[in-house]
Amino acid sequence: MKLYADLPARRLGQVVADLLMIAWVFLWARVGRAVHNSTLELAEPGHRLESAGSGFRDKLTTAGNTVDDLPVLDDKVATPFRDAAGAGTTIEEAGRDLVSAVESLATTLGWVTALTPILIVGAFWLAARWRFVRRATAAQSLVDSVDDLDLFALRAMSNQPLQRLSRISPDPAGGVAAWRPGGDPRPRPPRALGLRPPAPPEDGRRPPRPLHPEVSSTGSTWGSVHTRDHHGGALLRPHVRLVLP
Fold first, then answer.
1. 158-216, pLDDT tens digit by residue?
2. In this structure, which of 55, 82, 157, 202 has its CB flanked by the most CB atoms within 10 Å?
3. Which residues have C-beta within 8 Å of that of residue 227, sequence separation ≥ 6?
4. Does any domain span residue 120?
């Protein structure tokens, strides 16, 4: 699987896009966290209500127990205090329920705030990256013979306007065939069709017919690498890079 292009400018753009996506996720994660914390502040009245109900219950319960301990008074006097303490328990439970509801709301708002922009932008980013990886991987697996190079040359030609093709050559398809490694180097179509012709060797000699092409990237350029024939002599063979739009 090929994740990045070999052409420096294209690879730099992909790396920058990936870093921006990471920064985007981090930014909205922080925003979602801030929304969560801000919403939790709405639970403060619930905490106070819970605390007040608990205190009210404890005080009335203590008062009822105190009255019950008096030798002159019987349990009938302590009973109203204990019944009123039950109201404090109800208030405490209401405050607790309010806090729980606010916490659930804060969690929901935090996730929605963070995930909505992340998923929207991430969907476009992931689609673009997956499309490149799929096409680059397929291209790298295909370009393993001279015949496959013709396929990509014709693909480049098919993306050009007809007016441009007519200015290049009266027979663009024949020009592409002649441009094939080992063919006639006189036609000009490669660069005009979006393909770079092979660079001339340093000693000025015409490159011999390659043994086989090598795939190195997603670009559409010809370079040359040295190898040795079975007599030890230096040969040149092309180094292919396929440019994917």
1. 777 777 777 766 666 665 555 555 554 444 444 444 444 555 555 555 554 443 333 33
2. 157
3. 211, 234, 235, 236, 237
4. yes
